[in-house]
Amino acid sequence: MMQLKEILKKKDGQPVSVPASATVADAIRAMAERRVGSVIVPNADGSPAGIFTERDVLSLCAEGRTDFANMSLRPCMTCDITTGKPTDTVGEALAIMTTKRFRHIPVIDDAGKLIGVVSIGDLVKAKLEETAQEAEALREYIST
Description:
The protein is α+β, with helices and mostly antiparallel strands. Helix content is 43%, strand content 15%. The protein is built from five helices and four strands, in the order H-H-E-E-H-H-E-E-H. Helix 4 crosses helix 5 (120-143).
């Protein structure tokens, strides 16, 4: 079974992050520029302090809070983060994301340092590739 570390190897570059001092507008700009659905707010030691996602932007809009340029990011980000390990499987990560109803999971190493972020799209793509490989192996087995 494919592990999260294998997905991260295929992804381009480092996870998108913004400092805790950033505004909500800064975070939105970073997501738009990098075409991602979330940004990580790191602690000084490199561990994730929080995550800010497209869903957080929608929640702010629904509350009528739209002065993003003057809005501090820290109170708007999610601080209670569920993280994954590089050795977690795609299936394990999908199960967590489905149960907890979120679409991005930061992956941290044994020291607690952020090494990447996987999205539900990354996991679905990996699962489809895995399924296609299994189907091909079964076809080969049946034909021999």
